[in-house]
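Notebook p. 47: complex prediction with zinc ion.
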Amino acid sequence: MSIITIESEQLSIDSENFVYSKTSSRPSKSIVNPELYTEYKSIKDIFNFFDDKCDYLLRECLNYVFSNIQKIQEDIFILNENIYKIIQFTDNKFKNLNNSLNDKYENYIILCNDIYTYPKIQYFYILSNYFESINIVMSQIMHYNIIVCNKRNKNLEISFKNSIVKDFGIKVHDYIIKYIYQDNNYFLQDSIDTNNKISNICCNISQISNLNRDIYTVNKYYKAFINKECNIDCNCKSNNIFYSDILECYICEKCLVLTRLFLF
Ligand SMILES: [Zn+2]
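Predicted complex, structure tokens below:
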């Protein structure tokens, strides 16, 4: 999990240098390991711990940056006393995203499932020209990112000839690329491993009831972690301790704390 903060920067952005495309860019090998990506994409049914993944993961990521979170409407949050508008960015149409960021609000959260392509990173970096700061926040649980845009200080007067851009003609700092590369690979590997573990367990009928208990407990643990509900006053009794094959660690089913076993 990383939180990358990009402070406000004066960039010279020349839309004459933009290169357009009809289709979305392919993953860039500087941003994700192509072998892991191909293996991940070949998994038919990616295992998912949440029924409503986006709500939980959004809250998880917001928790890393804001101490006070209030949902006012479906797409409006008050975060540390400032209003933020939520914008979905899943179609790779930068022109639409750019228009949305010129709305009446000062602060925005961009929801972005993955960051595999160079133009996405370029665009998020370019935003530092228009906002006081940008945070790229990645979930610890699943592959999920949000881009927090704090205090717009001028309108995003970027002219687009087309919606899908394949190169914004600007170089992004290496440290940003490096963090995103590490995180992407970590999550792809983790998803591949979890899916392998689960399919191995599914091959053995006697282990299936244990798997259901495991999924149930891990799901409960993640929800408690996100909602900050892990109970710290539990005297974890050994009969409440469950070994999770999925997380490969012990969980107290009562307080949902992971590492208490060391206290015995
Ligand atoms: Zn406990």
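Notes: The chain has a mean pLDDT of 91. Residues 234, 236, 240, 252, 254-255, 257, 260 surround zinc ion (CB under 6 Å).
Next step: compare against the earlier run before touching the bench.
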